[in-house]
Inverse folding.
């Protein structure tokens, strides 16, 4: 058992969700092909200590796992404990903030970058100048995404408003679909979202509206509505970690990669996105990739008109990670 | 007595099947029925596993090993059995007088909320004192959430099934509000989490993952087993459930009994929340109750609303959950695992029901003494509907014993 690394993945949702967990599972498959490691996974593991622990302990004790990837925020506390109990196993946690010096790291991606680009496409496609955003939970990650999306939409369409409703869900097709329908009823003709289901897209297609999906290219689910999507591409990161574990060179970090590292990307645009907008999106994407410009570059004002990023300045990572406000042009409360 | 009205039969033959309680069921046979149901389900499960491409022997071996073999496995089963026993008892206490507490899930959360709040205010206290205080706060929290449904039931005859269920979602939303708002941990870099419970409030461990929550649950089950089956109070409770008119005639205050049973039920579920918070969890989170409250309904039903049965059923249920989780690391999908777990519980339930009830066919004119089945009355005239489970006729009369 010396040669082959066994990498085990703990997923919060079903691999068939077409969203968050599906994207992680694609990453797992990619890493398996790229490294030759054995990969295992369990899906639908609730974010509670006893469920997560049970799965991980089985992976380690019975299947000989060398590295555990936990792909949901709620796994953080039990993962920290387990990292202490199993010092010879590597633990990597997506979307959290805890780590240690030896065998526990965290990773995430600068999803706000492709979200900005998707906002540009959405801003060009709305005729009502009103976009509905089906938001998940009022946490910095989601606020950052809404703000980046709005700034992108405003770049091509200064009059645009982004109307936000909160579902307090990550995967609940019924609520998410209803929220999208309600936003359309209230005047939006483009829907964006932060959850893992395809329901907002189905609602948009039914109402003749357009849709920016999330996590993965969901164009097959609502082809008439689909514009584009900011998507995850976890495979290369998983492969790097598995290789480091195999080579004995792993050291934990707090990884937050951007479009330059290909962990986040923009899905292909719909055919009817105007050519000039499409060209501008490519231009901005190139700037994001070469690092000459980033999304939260001033001047940026919050909903009350206060300047939050001064002209010419760029927001620090710390401020982005702790973002609690909405930018001007967002309609809705950041603290519902 | 459960009356199942099956209209196609009525239309065809004018007859309908009625479940009638068997007399003289020997208590020991309950366990036999329970095991028999599980064995039948496991045999049927072989087909499920074969058709989904898994080796039944390997899967069952892993299930058994992960739940029972060795102290670590046993401790995992006990860790799950603890909240299941408490929520099962919660549902059973209400059920022993024919009331349905569907909202133990929410009362768990309410208990955990109040316990967390108290821990925030009193985190300077020593461990044992703080734990005791948090347990009491948990009970209070569960009772507070139950107060509305209990009063509405006892005084206005509003169905507690609806009100307790609806409050589940209220309680979960309150936790989400606390997470993102007033109780957000300032040291969490903007993430919406509540600060961890003080370290000294962690329930002392017994072995492996099992903690003294196991003893709390066992102690409480013993107390309620004695109270329900061996005291005049318990007899009145069961009498009020099975035959309210008789109880009223005997001078029992139905209102007070309904109120007491429901508040106790809520309090026990609240305690389950506090035990979960200090035993397994690190902090209050919206997923803390983890379905244990709803599972408690199944536990209580399988235990025929008897505290003595709850302990056994909760242990088996915990083992099924641990085993079901564990086989997924073998590559069994979560859907197949869920079906298998459901089959085992359903098998046990069917067997227990048919050991305790028999099917009797009644024609339109005879047999049943109930009202016209063609027109089921949507509004029950009694303040307390008789539950599916009546007091066991073979049990010694506790009133005589107490007198």
């Amino acid at each position: 058992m010396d040669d082959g690394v066994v990498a085990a993945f703990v997923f919060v949702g079903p691999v068939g969700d077409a969203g968050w967990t599906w994207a992680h599972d694609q990453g797992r498959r990619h890493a398996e092909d790229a490294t030759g490691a054995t990969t295992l996974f369990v899906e639908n593991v609730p974010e509670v200590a006893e469920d997560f622990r049970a799965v991980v302990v089985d992976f380690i004790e019975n299947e000989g796992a060398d590295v555990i990837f936990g792909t949901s925020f709620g796994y953080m506390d039990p993962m920290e404990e387990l990292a202490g109990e199993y010092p010879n196993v590597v633990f990597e946690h997506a979307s959290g903030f805890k780590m240690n010096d030896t065998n526990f790291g965290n990773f995430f991606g600068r999803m706000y970058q492709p979200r900005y680009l998707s906002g540009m496409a959405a801003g060009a496609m709305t005729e009502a100048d009103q976009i509905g955003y089906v938001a998940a939970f009022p946490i910095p990650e989601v606020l950052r995404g809404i703000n980046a999306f709005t700034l992108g939409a405003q770049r091509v369409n200064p009059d645009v408003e982004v109307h936000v409703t909160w579902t307090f869900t990550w995967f609940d097709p019924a609520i998410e679909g209803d929220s999208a329908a309600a936003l359309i009823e209230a005047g939006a003709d483009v829907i964006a979202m932060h959850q893992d289901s395809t329901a907002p897209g189905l609602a948009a297609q039914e109402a003749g509206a357009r849709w920016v999906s999330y996590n993965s290219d969901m164009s097959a689910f609502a082809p008439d509505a689909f514009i584009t999507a900011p998507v995850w591409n976890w495979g290369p990161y998983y492969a790097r970690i598995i290789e480091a574990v195999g080579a004995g060179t792993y050291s934990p970090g707090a990884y937050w990669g951007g479009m330059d590292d290909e962990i986040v990307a923009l899905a292909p645009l719909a055919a009817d996105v105007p050519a000039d907008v499409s060209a501008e999106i490519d231009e901005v994407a190139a700037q994001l990739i070469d690092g000459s410009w980033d999304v939260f570059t001033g001047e940026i004002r919050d909903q009350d008109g206060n300047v939050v990023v001064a002209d010419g300045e760029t927001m620090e990572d710390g401020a982005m990670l702790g973002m609690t406000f909405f930018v001007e042009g967002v309609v809705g409360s950041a603290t519902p | 007595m459960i009356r199942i009205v099956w209209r196609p039969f009525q239309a065809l033959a004018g007859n309908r099947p009625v479940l009638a309680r068997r007399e003289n069921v020997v208590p020991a046979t309950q366990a036999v029925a329970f095991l028999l149901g599980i064995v039948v389900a496991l045999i049927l499960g072989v087909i499920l596993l074969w058709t989904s491409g898994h080796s039944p022997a390997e899967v069952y071996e892993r299930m058994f090993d992960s739940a029972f073999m060795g102290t670590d496995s046993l401790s995992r089963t006990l860790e799950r059995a603890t909240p299941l026993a408490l929520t099962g008892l919660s549902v059973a206490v209400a059920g022993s007088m024919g009331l349905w507490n569907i909202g133990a899930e929410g009362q768990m959360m309410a208990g955990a909320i109040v316990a967390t709040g108290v821990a925030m205010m009193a985190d300077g206290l020593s461990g044992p004192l703080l734990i005791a205080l948090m347990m009491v706060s948990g009970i209070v929290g569960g009772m507070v959430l139950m107060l509305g449904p209990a009063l509405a039931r006892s005084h206005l005859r509003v169905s507690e099934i609806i009100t307790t269920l609806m409050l589940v979602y209220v309680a979960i939303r309150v936790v989400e509000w606390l997470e993102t708002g007033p109780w957000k941990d300032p040291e969490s870099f903007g993430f919406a989490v509540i600060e961890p419970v003080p370290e000294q409030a962690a329930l002392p461990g017994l072995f492996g993952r099992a903690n003294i929550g196991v003893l709390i649950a066992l102690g409480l089950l013993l107390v309620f087993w004695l109270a329900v089956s061996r005291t005049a109070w318990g007899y009145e409770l069961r009498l009020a459930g099975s035959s309210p008119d008789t109880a009223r005639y005997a001078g029992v205050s139905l209102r007070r009994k309904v109120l007491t049973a429901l508040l106790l039920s809520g309090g026990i579920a609240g305690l389950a929340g506090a035990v979960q918070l200090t035993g397994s969890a690190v902090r209050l989170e919206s997923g803390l109750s983890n379905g244990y409250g709803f599972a408690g309904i199944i536990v209580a039903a399988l235990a025929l609303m008897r505290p003595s049965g709850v302990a056994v059923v909760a242990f088996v249920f915990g083992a099924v959950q641990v085993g079901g989780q564990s086989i997924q690391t073998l590559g069994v999908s979560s859907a197949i695992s869920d079906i298998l777990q459901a089959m085992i519980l359903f098998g046990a339930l069917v067997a227990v029901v048919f050991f305790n009830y028999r099917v009797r066919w009644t024609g339109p004119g005879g047999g049943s003494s109930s009202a016209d089945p063609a027109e089921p009355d949507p509004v029950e005239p009694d303040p307390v509907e008789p539950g599916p489970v009546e007091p066991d006729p073979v049990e010694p009369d506790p009133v005589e014993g107490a007198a």
Remarks:
- Chain A touches chain B at residues 8, 14, 40, 42-51, 53-55, 57-59, 62-63, 73-74, 77-78, 96-97, 137-140, 168, 321-324, 335-336 (CB under 8 Å).
